[in-house]
Amino acid sequence: MKNTVKKLVVWIIIGAAGMVYNGGCSGSFTYAPYVSKVAGLNVSLEYISGWKVLETRGERGSYAHVIFIENKSGQEMKAFMSITATPLTGGDIGVFSLQSAADDLVKKRSRFKGFNVISSTKTTLAGLDAQELLLAYQ
Prior knowledge:
Elements: H1 2-21, E1 31-35, E2 44-48, E3 52-57, E4 64-69, E5 80-85, H2 98-109, E6 116-125, E7 128-136
Antiparallel strand pairs: 1-2, 3-4, 4-5, 6-7
């Protein structure tokens, strides 16, 4: 058992070193500044240079949204990051909290075919509490 644990630790260290060396965590990316132009979003951050940036605003100001999409042609799957801001009024989530907003989003997306919650993690964004959801559906 002790040798198995040592081998596992060695493989984890080799895997982490490989990720860093191959650019996964190496910081070898260059970044570009982003400041939202869409009213109601109020976000500024740095994103990976070369990624596409798309901003949208919903009808009658129902939401403000920005998405950063990896700019690689010929790939079926692309990495992306998305930020959406919605007003607190007019929703059906009751008393507002991050958890209630996340639950409401999951409830609405659960209607899609093949829906699955891959992960739900509490995090921070620009120093504020946030909920990161990774959802899959067709």
